[in-house]
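Hi, here's the filled form for the chain we discussed.

Project: internal
Contact: R.S.
Residues: 434
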Amino acid sequence: MDRLRPPPSSGSHGGYARSFLATLLLILSVVGAATSTLDPFGIHRWIEVPGINAHKPATHARVRMFKAYEVERVKPETVILGSSRSHVGFSCRHPALARLPGPCYNLAFDGATTREMFEYLVHANEIRPLRTVLLGLDTYHLSDATSLTRPGFDATVLLSARHRRWQRAVEGDLRLAISVDALASSLDMLRHQSDGEPEWFLADGQRSGELFFRRPGEEFAQAGPRAYFDAIDRLEVGFQTPTRSPSVSRGEPSRPDPAESSLAYVGRIAAFCRERGIELRIAITPSHVHQLEISALLGAGAALETGKRALVRLLAREAGGRPGNAVPVWDFSGYSSITTEPLPRLGSREEMKYYWDSSHFKSGVGDLVLERVFATGPVADAVPPDFGVLLDADTLEAALSSQRARQASHRDSAADDLAALRRLVESAQRAELP
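And the returned structure, exactly as it came back:
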């Protein structure tokens, strides 16, 4: 009997395909509408209902995505670029920034590379022409190593001369709305509305250290400030300790492209700002001296001086060889009354005045940086005189020499503290031995 049944027509196959596509389109439309309304990533902020979608935990792990859209809502004329140090330490509410025309937004985020900073600078300027930029550089940014992008960076959500709003709407907004990640994050958001974790994102984009480090379950709150400081030191030693694992390839290592180096992207940022009449100021951020001593113990101390020289030369070239026109660079990374703050005793739960850990300075220190970089007169005079030095072709070598002297003085006065650091580094190095 089966041989008498006529074969299915090509029209019926087409009907099945059309039906499948229609069903798929309907499902994607429903998912897209639901996730866009619930908005787990804080993209649209159309409707926010307490107990349903007011608390958006997904944004805490997707800071790069969140800030790409948040900066479009704020439409700032002043932005702060940098890594987590700038994210935690610099506030747009500081008088030096608050008095500038237009809104200000802290566009820094954890682990930001100079390539990512450049892309976010372009994005912010596409949204609204900028007037002022503060670029917070960490010492590791002063390098000829290739500047890459980190997990979470997504060029499709950023605007540029080559990536317009309609492209972002399709490649970024729509793709995110119908993604499995958006659906899963929406469901997770609905389940965790009553968790009560403090919203450490402030309205100006700053990450509130007062809220973030004191969250329930955070090691700073559980183990105490000193134990947390020591834990970050151990992580830093691990980051900086070279691995001795054998190379997979026996070929010659590829040479990094100088045009893609970390410092090259600083040059791109400077050129972009100059071409558009944006006032750019650079601050080398003030980590605690433990970070500098760890680098020195691992043999990388000279690289910092090399990086500062390279930065000054780069900015002089960018200014067309006219030193007076170069972007001002303020260096807060050296040995000072701020960065050499003594640690609380072991086992103590006493907080430090200036630091959360050896990498992240408190907002009060950030205020001192902003006063030095932007203010003049009596306000700037309140900053400790040994905190922050202007680097240019005329002052650079004297500043580096002064820092070497301050380093030697600090090592004499903090011998026990540095001996403990040395033991930590030696332990890490032994662990790397084959």
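Let me know if anything looks off before we file it.
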